[in-house]
Design brief:
The chain is an alpha+beta fold. Helix content is about 25%, strand content about 30%. Helix 1 packs across helix 3 and helix 2 packs across helix 3.
Length: about 250
């Protein structure tokens, strides 16, 4: 592909021809490890840097690529969809995308913590503390910290959490099945240690998630953690028969 392209080919701008070929190569996972820099693409296609930048800009606008300052462009990974208004398992959410979920267990031990004890309604009692760095196909995506009353969940201290779900182990080993809870999500700029573990820079946003889960009336897990904002999307779904009567019918022009 050169600037002396035939008349028939010139009916389509050069940047569009480059863009079409880049999409073809992306579809074959040619850039799974890394996306080439502008200079490499200029040499490969034999076109101007302006042409390459326009093609790459289109890929970025479509959400296919993300450019990180000082590090180049990267192929955007599939977002992990998390439902709102229901109890979900990050383990299952990751595996449902076709990725392999693995956890690096940073801590699994009994601890005391005033705030966690207050959240779980068991002041003065020891807790099981589980801290995991969650990975999808080997890439860090979340840092999870879970607290559970040791009197209910001490059996979890024997679990290898490398490739298993906390809630499944809680049901199997402790006969505890979560029935309700609440979750709070807010955008944050992670702290230095969190950024280092997640492999993100200081300007990259994330979501801070806090959850309190119950088995019947008893609070069983208080969880707090950080997930990468570029890998997660939160989705709320509703049906017509579940709409609150306080909602007004949307105007057709909106």
């Amino acid at each position: 592909m050169t600037d002396s392209t035939s008349t028939a080919q010139r009916a389509e701008p050069l940047w569009a021809q480059v863009l079409a070929d880049l999409r073809r190569r992306l579809d074959t996972d040619e850039f799974a490890e890394r996306f080439p820099g502008d200079a490499e693409l200029v040499e490969h296609y034999g076109v101007s840097r302006h042409t390459i930048r326009e093609a790459v800009r289109r890929l970025q606008a479509d959400g296919v690529l993300e450019r990180r300052r000082g590090r180049g462009s990267f192929v955007t990974k599939t977002a992990i969809e998390q439902p709102l208004g229901t109890l979900y398992s990050l383990y299952r959410s990751v595996e449902d995308t076709g990725a392999v979920q693995r956890s690096v267990v940073r801590y699994l031990e009994e601890r005391r913590d005033d705030k966690a004890e207050a959240m779980l309604g068991c002041p003065g009692q020891t807790l099981v503390y589980l801290e995991r760095l969650r990975l999808a196909d080997g890439e860090p995506i979340a840092l999870d910290c879970s607290w559970l009353p040791a009197s209910l969940a001490r059996q979890l201290l024997e679990v290898d959490f490398d490739h298993t779900a906390l809630y499944e182990e809680l049901a199997e080993r402790c006969d505890l099945r979560l029935t309700s809870g609440w979750e709070r999500i807010r955008p944050v700029l992670p702290e230095r240690t969190q950024r280092s573990l997640l492999g993100i820079d200081a300007r990259q946003p994330a979501f801070a998630i806090e959850r309190l889960a119950f088995a019947g009336e008893a609070p069983v897990e208080w969880r707090h953690g950080v997930v990468r904002g570029d890998r997660f999307t939160f989705v709320a779904r509703w049906a017509e028969h579940k709409l609150d009567t306080g909602f007004e019918q949307a105007q057709a022009s909106l």
